[in-house]
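Worked Example 4.2. Consider the chain below.
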Amino acid sequence: MTEALGTKVIERLEEHRHIAHVPTLAGHGMGVDKDVTHVQCVQSVIDYIVERHLSDVILVGHSFAGSIICKAVEAMPERVRQRATSILLDVLAIPV
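Applying the procedure from the previous section yields the following structure tokens:
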């Protein structure tokens, strides 16, 4: 998802009184080691949610992040809203 599109998604969520969080996946961002595994990316999302004591979350993922949020939901279903576990946008299918 482009930054501009991501910003629009966040704005729309906040317009509807949702609190939007945008965690940075392991291996993403400026000046970080890019040599990370899929498992490490998933763990970075899980850690973000647990460290902030978030619950009843709805995860949104675009492309590669779609596979990340699917695994995060599997790992912590108790923290995810039951009727809408995840929203996938243009998911890239990869073997894990």
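The chain is about 40% helix and 10% strand. Residues 24-89 form one domain. Compare this with Example 4.1 before moving on.
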